[in-house]
């Protein structure tokens, strides 16, 4: 397996030569219209101007030669598809009032995180978009841009982050959009005066209880020197950033003034760390001051914080465990002669899935496959751990890895399995309630969204399936969230149901919003 365990390199080199050249050329042209980013790139990589000069010269020579030998076809302007324009206008008017935007119970009383709450249902507790077939309301897409992270919705705004493939790397931005129209309200791509762009985002945003702060990690598995970011939700201004030497693919958790995230290891081809093996980072939401850090092997998992301030997080490659930590300050623990570690529970495989809190249990998933590569002998596990004692209440072995969030609702645990199945377990004893192959069985890499009467599942090729949560039977026809077929199978964003609509990121279709009617 390659060294990029969580978000590996995007494309096989042989298959991607031509698209990469085209994308690179497009990115270079785009940079000409973003002078701050162009200057920043040239400062960091002074060899690029010389290389570009050579390629431009060759390109001009080729075009002149081609023009001399080939007839020039007449340039025909493509007609405007007025029927499609009309459909969009009608759709916007038809659903303008759908799911009236207002603070929901969940959003109004708690910090929001990947999966909305520590139960990771992906659902805010408000209206559910019921319809025989969901209707698209709007999408926000940009060229060569993936939306890998899961969006979060609060007070009529949807917040997300991007991964842009550029000539010289993978960059990204954080943004806010009107939840009903998709209009971009702000977009932030740098925290520095010289315009140095953010690295790409896999981490999903968290929103503070008062709705004023957005916190998100930065970077993909290949990146180093990534920062934890805090932005003002009203303006997109970067309030603070906490630099690290690693990447932050973990999605942060917030409770009060405490922000916690995992900093994952940079690994070689054998999954051995090349630098720092990883740590859990805790900072103050108000100031960005580092409160403490605790060494853990490859904590790519997304943490959860319970009502007592206990932090739960998974340990990935070279760790294979779930860990509970006290959140007290270093000084407080030292004065009492206490240790930060509460318990450490070994697992048979890396635990890279987010931690889900279900009553007195911490439930985690893991496995020996990653988001791109399936182990020749795939295997996975779901474990329910007593939050107080660290004893394993039950364990269920799976046919493949569990990479996305497991969801807890009404005494049941909904598990997305990489082999294309959804398995639902009884939270009390881990026994099967039902299991179902979703569609044709394309791998399920993202978390789920589950309500009392709908279960939303997206697979790696971008098919959105809506199931009955009682038995797994289809509730609606499947539909694609991609704008066009994806080349990489990188639909990693989980669905979010909030304020009566469904939101999801995609590989080629941008960030999308769907609605329905009762």
Automatic annotation (TrEMBL):
<keyword id="KW-1133">Transmembrane helix</keyword>
<dbReference type="InterPro" id="IPR015943">
    <property type="entry name" value="WD40/YVTN_repeat-like_dom_sf"/>
</dbReference>
<dbReference type="InterPro" id="IPR011047">
    <property type="entry name" value="Quinoprotein_ADH-like_sf"/>
</dbReference>
<feature type="transmembrane region" description="Helical">
    <location>
        <begin position="45"/>
        <end position="64"/>
    </location>
</feature>
<protein>
    <submittedName>
        <fullName>PQQ-binding-like beta-propeller repeat protein</fullName>
    </submittedName>
</protein>
<dbReference type="InterPro" id="IPR018391">
    <property type="entry name" value="PQQ_b-propeller_rpt"/>
</dbReference>
<dbReference type="InterPro" id="IPR002372">
    <property type="entry name" value="PQQ_rpt_dom"/>
</dbReference>
<feature type="transmembrane region" description="Helical">
    <location>
        <begin position="6"/>
        <end position="33"/>
    </location>
</feature>
<dbReference type="Pfam" id="PF13360">
    <property type="entry name" value="PQQ_2"/>
</dbReference>
<keyword id="KW-0472">Membrane</keyword>
<feature type="domain" description="Pyrrolo-quinoline quinone repeat">
    <location>
        <begin position="154"/>
        <end position="395"/>
    </location>
</feature>
<keyword id="KW-0812">Transmembrane</keyword>
């Amino acid at each position: 397996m390659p060294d990029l365990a969580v978000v590996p390199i995007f494309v096989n080199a042989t298959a991607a030569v031509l698209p990469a050249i085209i994308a690179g050329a497009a990115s270079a042209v785009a940079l000409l219209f973003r002078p701050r980013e162009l200057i920043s790139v040239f400062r960091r990589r002074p060899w690029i101007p010389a290389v570009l000069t050579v390629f431009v010269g060759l390109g001009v020579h080729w075009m002149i030669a081609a023009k001399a030998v080939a007839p020039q076809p007449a340039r025909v302007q493509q007609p405007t598809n007025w029927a499609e324009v009309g459909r969009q206008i009608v759709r916007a008017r038809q659903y303008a009032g759908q799911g009236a935007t207002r603070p929901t119970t969940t959003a109004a009383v708690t910090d929001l995180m990947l999966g909305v709450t520590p139960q990771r249902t992906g659902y805010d507790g408000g209206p559910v978009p019921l319809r025989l077939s969901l209707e698209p309301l709007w999408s926000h897409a940009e060229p060569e841009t993936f939306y890998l992270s899961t969006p979060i919705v609060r007070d009529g705004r949807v917040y997300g982050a991007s991964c842009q493939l550029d000539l010289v790397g993978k960059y990204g931005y954080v943004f806010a959009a009107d939840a009903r129209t998709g209009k971009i309200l702000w977009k932030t791509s740098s925290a520095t005066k010289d315009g140095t762009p953010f690295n790409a985002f896999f981490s999903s945003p968290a929103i503070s209880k008062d709705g004023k702060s957005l916190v998100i990690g930065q970077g993909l598995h290949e990146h180093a020197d990534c920062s934890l970011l805090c932005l003002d939700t009203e303006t997109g201004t970067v309030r603070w950033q906490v630099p690290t030497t690693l990447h932050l693919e973990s999605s942060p958790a917030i409770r009060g003034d405490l922000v916690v995230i995992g900093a994952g290891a940079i690994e070689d081809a054998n999954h051995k760390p090349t630098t720092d093996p990883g740590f859990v980072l805790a900072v103050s939401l108000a100031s960005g001051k580092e409160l403490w850090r605790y060494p853990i092997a490859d904590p790519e998992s997304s943490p959860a914080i319970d009502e007592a301030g206990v932090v739960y997080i998974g340990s990935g490659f070279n760790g294979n465990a779930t860990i509970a930590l006290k959140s007290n300050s270093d000084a407080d623990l030292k004065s009492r002669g206490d240790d930060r570690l509460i318990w450490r529970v070994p697992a048979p495989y890396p635990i890279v899935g987010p931690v889900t809190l279900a009553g007195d249990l911490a439930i985690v998933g893991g496995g020996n496959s990653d988001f791109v590569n399936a182990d020749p002998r795939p295997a996975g596990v779901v474990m329910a751990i007593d939050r107080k004692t660290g004893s394993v209440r039950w364990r269920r072995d799976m046919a493949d890895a569990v990479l996305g969030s497991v969801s807890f609702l009404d005494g049941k645990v909904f598990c997305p399995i990489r082999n294309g199945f959804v398995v639902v377990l009884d939270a009390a004893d881990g026994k099967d309630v039902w299991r179902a192959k979703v569609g044709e069985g394309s791998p399920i890499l993202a978390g789920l969204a589950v309500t009392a009467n709908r279960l939303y599942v997206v697979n790696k090729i971008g098919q959105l399936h809506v199931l009955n949560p009682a038995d797994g039977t289809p509730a609606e026809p499947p539909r694609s969230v991609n704008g066009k077929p994806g080349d990489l199978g990188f639909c990693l964003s989980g669905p979010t149901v909030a304020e009566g609509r469904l939101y999801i990121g995609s590989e080629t279709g941008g960030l999308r919003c769907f609605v329905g009617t009762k």
